[in-house]
Structures are given as structure tokens and as C-alpha cells.
Amino acid sequence: MINKFCKKPLYECTMKLARVATGAEKADLVIKNSRLINVCTHEIMENISVAITEGRIALVGDAEHCIGENTTVIDAENKYLAPAFMDGHIHIESSMLSVGEYAKAVVAHGTSGVFIDPHEICNVLGLDGVNYMMEDAKRTPLKTMLTTPSCVPAVGGFEDTGAKIDPADVALTMDYDCCVGLGEMMNFPGILGANPHTHGIVAETLKAGKIPTGHYSLPETGPGLNAYIASGLRCCHESTRAEDAIAKMRLGMYAMLREGSAWHDLHEVAKAVTERKVDSRFACLVSDDTHPNTLMRHGHIDHIVRRAIEEGIDPVTAIQMVTINVAQCFQLDHEMGSVAPSKCADLVLMDDLNACHVTDVFIDGEYVAKDGKLLIEFAPYTYSEKATHSVHLDPLAPADFKIPCEGESAKVHTIEVIPGRVGTFDKVVTLPVQEGGIAADSEQDILKVAVFERHKRTGTVGRGFVKGFGIKRGALAQTVAHDAHNLLVAGSNDEDMALAANTLIECGGGLVAVLDGKVLSVVPLPIAGLMSDRPIEEMSAAIENMEHTWKEMGSTLPSPFMTMALIPLACLPETRLTNRGMVDCRTFSFMELIAE
Amino acid sequence: MINKFCKKPLYECTMKLARVATGAEKADLVIKNSRLINVCTHEIMENISVAITEGRIALVGDAEHCIGENTTVIDAENKYLAPAFMDGHIHIESSMLSVGEYAKAVVAHGTSGVFIDPHEICNVLGLDGVNYMMEDAKRTPLKTMLTTPSCVPAVGGFEDTGAKIDPADVALTMDYDCCVGLGEMMNFPGILGANPHTHGIVAETLKAGKIPTGHYSLPETGPGLNAYIASGLRCCHESTRAEDAIAKMRLGMYAMLREGSAWHDLHEVAKAVTERKVDSRFACLVSDDTHPNTLMRHGHIDHIVRRAIEEGIDPVTAIQMVTINVAQCFQLDHEMGSVAPSKCADLVLMDDLNACHVTDVFIDGEYVAKDGKLLIEFAPYTYSEKATHSVHLDPLAPADFKIPCEGESAKVHTIEVIPGRVGTFDKVVTLPVQEGGIAADSEQDILKVAVFERHKRTGTVGRGFVKGFGIKRGALAQTVAHDAHNLLVAGSNDEDMALAANTLIECGGGLVAVLDGKVLSVVPLPIAGLMSDRPIEEMSAAIENMEHTWKEMGSTLPSPFMTMALIPLACLPETRLTNRGMVDCRTFSFMELIAE
């Protein structure tokens, strides 16, 4: 695959590189006196200099002869020099930041490249949304490699999204310069069952010579995993046990060991490498998702490398897992992922290897960050009207939340959430009927919940009940709710629920908390109802404020926002609520709210 | 890069593979009860079965559920199962066998794939010659990956070849299905000196997203090697010292450790891996050239793996060096080089790992060889008239060999060969003049030598003298002589020389030995004057007979044929003779035969 992510294609600058390496011309930049983390041979080499021109490495070794009067010389003062880091699987939307703000946040931590699967925005806005994000990315130094969303909608037939992706759409995107492959193929039942549409999506990727990426979350590593890998899926970040990760590596699949904000898999999956003396070339470290607070407090890939070292992975091996191994997974190793002649000069300096403490970052030979601060600026990007006006709903009234019922009480199925887990229980409870509608009941810790389709004005709405949030009074709403990103509202009374919903309809989506007719906290996410173009510091503070509000309202969940966001995700057990109604995820069928 | 070398593209058979892996359909072939050499994780795994359909691997592990009534089941009886071997750099012409006969010879030794650089035939017949060889290859099970010859002629301006290769030719071949990259870029001075034509040839390869392969034979691993690698050359088989090989690996270049018939580098270069605890993913094992006798007596890649193990390389590491590492070098690892689902079912069984003794070979799931015998047949291929009539010379007379001179003796520059070495010395000697011409002199071990241009009837001929063959009487001739493959004749008298030349003109090229007006031995090489379509057994016997004849004629050289073949190769020190005359390779200028 020809890399479109460097300053200049290699074929346009080989003569210049050769002349600089021999000293016939002089380098733009020389970084000298470093300790090189050599990811090619797994060695640490002393007293290494690197000569750079055209954004690429011309020479590694002794570069004195490459220095001219116009050469910038940086003394690394014996710091560690490594390839800059790459995240092999990330959804930028989960950071709630625009690509530009995300780039600002991660580049200073040493990240030069991310392989993104923008399936959230794609569910809302289709390929237009993907294109907006890629346009946003272009201005930044962060190399943003697109893997085209493969599963839009995630679970067809149970909810309404803003768009869908067919094999023809995938084929179209494979011609994009920025596209390197296919995003995580979550529909493993479709792969294992030889569904032609699902296989068609993979086939279009393979035809283009690009990389289909995977998502295989079953604990079954026999026929199922083999069938999945045989279908061309090259990597997977869904291992939660060491035996899953090693099974994948043995079958030639890149095991992307995950340490995200919500998923702390590394403690377990690192054992795939630490407890066996295996060749680790098929292991990578990825984040999958990172919330602004994690980025602010802990960092990005640097944090995950640090975590890997804490789990006993050799530091040089850990660096390989975020550099050359990722590059080889995507067959971009001729351009990225090592400190070697001809490669893009994407480099970090670290003053502490075990702490993976990045002090200086270079991308395409440009000095982009120092001591955690960005050294460069880039032009602002304005998302189009289509992106910033994606909540297509008229204002709602309290009556829109009513669940009509006769009598004095009703037996209903309620969705009981499990603290810190993605699953739910189906629980039948008796709720009071007030003014002709079934009401929430704080005594039983039960809130009313509603999902409004917000993309195409179908007018569809699902209503039900949820148990276990710990909130006695008020309402919460959000447009992030996975994977259709419809408007999800939960609350104790219809008035607060309507206010919460209308606040988000007004601001183009986001998160909100309401109590007794007052908006206590709001995080606007005007880009597709998923992201904001505000800086990470502001977003992090706003989200902390929101979490604080939830706690004050009585929430007892460790991650109430995420738990809430999963209520409509109809691929998880046991029951869910989408804009089309209650779904029994054990049988994949719709169910009645009222229990017999 | 999409692989065109498998039975069926992956995108056409993922559904079938998934169904076989899950057992919904049954496999064509199951190999069970093997010990898997897992090149992905560097492990040996017990009791492994492999299920195969569509020529690809559907499942690795327990395959009982993949067996149906039409499934062929092979019990590996606890033999070692490994990916079949690949030779990352080979010139088939040096075997003197056609591609078909070469394939027959190597497949039974476990070779499933070769990355060929057909620059010999290209010097004679241009891209037509390359195309003939690729057509020949198509019928065989051997996956023959073309790297387009980059240096035709090898040394421009000093000799006449049948063809030349420009950047436009390279660009043309990059569209070939069979082309994976560029052949060894021997013109490292052109790369280091930023020559636009040389860089243009590499650039056309890079533009096509294919792999430029290298040839960097300098001991300098600083600015020169960096410049060479910075120019995009991804691998090199020219290391003769461990420090050269490790320097290349550290700079992200694949070090192809060579053990050819003429070049026994492994004893030294293996130390790059054995004496350091480095990651060996950038090391491969290659043959570069193999004579029929080596193939008959020792084998092909199996022999080199055995040699690597003898040199102390771990057996599984050695197998990695001829499987997954080669595949990753050429970015074909998604298709070849590991025993993993989706990959081509190119497999070997071995009953002894340390001896690398291959008993069974499968290519694209077809059982192609057992116990050293081919199990399949393939259609014969007939090379075109252009290939089989490539010696464009009218019969020669003794007078054509005359070097006119007055007087009784002459002081001339003679080329003194060095036993077992590629270099020569420039030596000034006094030779008798007989019948108006300078004569050979057996007292001084000096033969007359002549090079006739044989491609385009330019009528050019170079004449001179060579010292050190030990042959008192008679003549030798050959059309293999590197790299222009003109007609080279050496002898004690003009009559025998004319007979030797005319014998080869008559049979379309080859090797011949003549004594006292009689042809003692001849090896016809009618394909481009380089190769024969006769079986390896016949060729090996013919060459042994020729070597025996040389010895009987008095030759004292360890490898007289190769030493003779290098007489015209004007890139080696000190002096050479081409069809244009004597070349002083110290100054790269023509020189007079008569010494001042």
C-alpha cells in the first residue's frame, strides 16, 4: 500500500535522501546523542544520531557529515529515541473531542498515528460524517488512517440509524487516499454464518488490497475463531483473557491488547506475552476508546506502554507493540514504525523508558511537541451544518413520555443494569399507574426511559423502565447512546425528561442532567451529537462537572454515563430498549413492555 | 499487494472457508496428527490438524468436524508441519534449467515459492525473455514471483547486450500480475550518486506499491548503506560478514543470508543472529544461485535451513527465515508464509527437524511431492524461436581469432585469474608472434581469449589473453559469460577456438570443450544460450562430464566454468575483456592490449 500520510511520497525524494545520507547535501534536522530503541532488532543502541530531510530519515548512526549551516541540530542529551507511537484501533468519537482537539491532546504524548474506525459518526451521518472527520484530520500533524466502518447499523432490524453501509460503500471508500482498511467487523455471527452481505463488505476490502480489521469477542477459539480469521480479518482487540490473545497470535492474527478508559484488559491479556516465551510480533497495544479525563490524567499510548511495562512486558517489546508491529499489521512498515532510513521521521524522545515519559515529539521531521506542550498551530476546522444540526426532532412535551395504562398498577419488564458490567437483567416489577400512565418508582430505584429516533423524523419512540441508577428525582439525557445514537432520556418524571430532551434538541446533542425543572449540568456535543470542538481541558472539566452532578443526584454506578449509553445496544444481554421498543437480546426478538 | 499466486483470491472464497471451519461444509483435505512449527509465535505445538479447502487453510487445531465422506485425510504421524519454504532471491538461469525443470527439482525439497530476478535472460532477450520464463512458470506448482531486472545492462558503456531496461520498462512490468517488485539494484554507485535514471527505476517500483530489492556489496555500513536504504531498497543478499548483515537489520533492511552454490556466506553471516540476542524478523535465508549439482546432491532451501541449524541458528528461527520473514519482506504475509487460517495451503511435513528432512509437500492444498518424488505432472512448455535461436553469429573461421602483430614477439596485458576468487590481476607478459599473429603460450599458462557480440550482429569482437587456467591445448567456449552473455572463447590455437565457437553457434549456445579438432564435451543451453529444457539429472550429468573434461585438459581451477564466465564482467577488478575490448576496471576505461 502506498502511504499517503507522509509529507512527500518516497519515490519523489529518494535522490535527496541519498544525497543527504552521503553528505552531498545537508540535512534539515539532525537529532544527535540519543539512545536508540531499535525496534527492528530489539536492541538499545548508544550514541545514535538521526539525519532528516523531506520529512524522512536519511541516516541513522553518525550524522556529523550531514550537518550544514542551515541544519537544525538538537542534542538529545542521551535521552531514548524511539519511533513515535501508533494506536492500531481507536474510535475518536468516544473522546467526545473533534479530531483536531483529539490530535492536540495525543500528539504531545508521543502519538503520531491512529487507525480510526469512525463508526459512531457514520451511524449518524453516513460517509458524509466520515468525510468530515477525515477533513478535520488533514490539518493536523496526527496521521489519521481510516478504517471504513463495517457495521452500520451495528444490529440491523432492531433500531433506526442515520445511515447504513453496504459493500458498495466500502468499495467506494477503498479508493480514498486516507483509507487503509476496514473497521472492526463486529458482525462475527454474519462471518461465521457465511452471510453474503457481511462477507461482501470484507471482500471489497480484500479486493482493494487493504486490511480488514476484526472484533471477535467470543471465548471460543476453535472453529469460530478459525472461521473468522479464515475470512480475512487480520487483527482483533476484543481479547479479555490471555488464552484468547495467544490463540489469535498462534493463528496469525494480530492480537491488539487493549487498555481503554472503559476496558482494562491489559492486566489479563499481557500474560499472553509475559507467561510464554513467544515471538511477540503479532501483538499490539491499543486504546479502542479514551475519555478526555484519561487523556488528561494518564495520557494515550504512552500510558498504555507504561501499563504494559507494569504488567511485566519488556520495555523494548512494549515499544515494538506500538510501532513496528502496528505498521506490519497494516503493511505500512515500509513507511512507518521504525527509526530507519527512508521512513517518515516520526520520532519521540523519552527521558525515562520504564515510565515511558515522552519529552519531545517529531512528526514528518517537524518538531511538534515538547514537554507535553504542542509547538505548532493548525487552522481551525468548521464542521458543516449537516454535522452540527444532527438532532432532527421537534421540541417534546411531557405527554410524549407517557406510557398509557389503565388500572392502578402494572407488571412490566424492566432493564436492570449491573454496576461496572455491560450486561443487564430482565426483571419483572410492579409499578404504579398515575394519571393514566405507568410511572417511575424511586422506592424500587426505577426510572422511566425513552429512546427517540432523531435522524430521519420517523417519529418512532421506544419507552420502558430501567432499574439500578440510584437516582431518586430528575432526568438524564444523551445522544451518544450506542450504536444508533438516538436521543435517550431517563428520569423520574415526564416534565424533567421533556426538559432534558429539549435541552439537547436545542444544543444539537450531548449530555444533560435536570432536576425539578432546572438544568443542572450540560455537555453540548454539537458534532453529530457525539463530539465537541472545544478544547480537551474544557471538555474534561465539563464532564467532571456532569459526573459530579450525577453523583449529587444519587447515582451509585461507577460509570453511569457509559452504563446509560449501552441501554439501546441490542447486541448485549439480556434486554435493551431502542427507538423501536424493548428487545429481548436472548432471542433477538421484540418484547412487550407489559409482562403477562 | 493482492496475491495472484494462489489458486483463488481470498475474497472469492471467504464464505466457503468460514463454512468449512465451522463444519457446515467439509474440507477437501485434512492433515492430522502433526507437530506444528508455529512461525507466528515461534512455538512447536503438538497434535495439530489443518483443514483445507479452495487451496487455502480453513482451520488449524482440531479438525475432526471438518472431515466428511469426500475429505482426503492424511495422517502426519507426528511429523513436523511447517509452511513450505520460499527463496527470497534467486536467479533461475544459474541452474541452467528451464523454469519447469527447476520447479521439478526444488518443489520436492519443500520449496513452494521463489522470488526470481531473471536478469540473465533479460540481458539476452529483454522483457520478452522475462515473459517466456514467467509463462513457463505458470504451468508449474512453484509460485514464481517476478522481481523485474533493474540493471540491464549491468555495466553500461563497456559491452553490448541484447536489451536494456529503462524506468518505463519497469513501470510496464509493475502491472504484471506476477510482478511483486524490482530485482536486485546492483548499481549502488548510481543510487549513492543520485543518478536520475537509477533512481527512476526504483521510483517506478515504489509508485506501484511494490518492493525494490537490493544488492549492496560494499563493506561500508555508514553513509553509503544509509543512502542506499533511504532510497527504498528493502533487502540485500550481499552481506559476507556478520557485521554487514546486522548493520542492515538494524537499519530496517531485510538481510538475506546467502548460501548459494558459488557463495558460501552462511558460516560468517549466521553470526549476526547467533552471536547476538536480537529480534531476527529482518533475516531471511536465500540461495541467490544454485547449480544443478547442488540441487541434486544437497537440495534447495531445505539444505540452507540445515546449514543454518549447523551454524547454530535455532531450528524454528531458521524456518521463520524462509517462511514468514520472507513473506513480510514482500508484504505477502497475508497470503503466504504461515500455517494459519486464510493463508494458501503451502505446507511441508518433515520427519527430522534438525536435518530439515522434507517428506511431503503441499502447494495450494495439492499434494505435490512425497519422499523426494513429484506426485504431479504438468504440461510441457516450448520456448519460442526467439529464445532458442539467440546466438546471432555466422560461422567463424580460425582467422577471426587472429590478433595481427609484426615482429617475433609482443608485450601484452594479460588477465590473470585467481583460483576461487572473482578478482583478476593485470599482468604484462611477452608472447610469441606466429604467422603474423600473437599466439597463446602454454609455457606461461596463457590462453588466447575472444568475446563475440552475439545479439545484434554488430560484428564487434574483443580479443586478448588470459593466464592461469592450466590448460595446455585445446579450447573452451560458453555463452553464459556474464552479464552480456556474449560468446566467450578461450584456447591454445585458432582452429580449436573456431570449432568450439561454431559448435555453440550451431546448438544455440551452451558450454563446450574442444581438443585437437574434436569436440570432447558439450552442454547445449538452447534457451537464450543460458538454460536447457532437459531434466536436472541429465543436466547434472552433462555438467559433471564437462568438469571432468576440463580437468583432463589440465584445468587446475576449483570452479573453471564460473571463473571463465566472469572474464567479461566489467564491474570486477582489475582487468576484463568484453566484446568491445580490454577494460581497465580500476579506472573504468578501455585499455590497449599491447603494453607500451
Task: Give a structural overview.
Two copies of one chain form a homodimer. Chain A has 596 residues and is of the alpha/beta class. Chain A is 26% helix and 28% strand. Chain A is built from 18 helices and 29 strands. In chain A, α4 (167-173) packs parallel to α6 (196-207). Chains A and B meet through α1, β3, α6, α7 and α8 of A and α1, β3, α6, α7 and α8 of B.
Topology, element by element:
The structure is a homodimer of 596-residue chains.
Chain A lengths: L13 H9 L6 E10 L4 E11 L2 E6 L10 E4 L4 E4 L1 E6 L8 H9 L3 E6 L2 H20 L4 E6 L18 H7 L5 E7 L2 H5 L3 H12 L3 E4 L8 H8 L4 E2 L5 H9 L3 E5 L7 H4 L1 H4 L8 E4 L5 H6 L3 H10 L4 H6 L3 H6 L17 E6 L4 E7 L2 E5 L2 E2 L10 H4 L20 E9 L6 E11 L2 E2 L7 E7 L8 E7 L7 E4 L8 E5 L2 H14 L2 E6 L2 E7 L11 H17 L7 H6 L9 E4 L2 E4 L4 E3 L5
Parallel strand pairs in A: 1-4, 1-5, 6-7, 7-8, 8-9, 9-10, 11-12, 12-13, 18-22
Antiparallel strand pairs in A: 1-2, 2-3, 5-14, 14-15, 15-16, 16-17, 18-19, 19-20, 21-22, 21-24, 23-24, 23-25, 25-26, 27-28, 28-29
Helix pairs in contact in A: 4-6
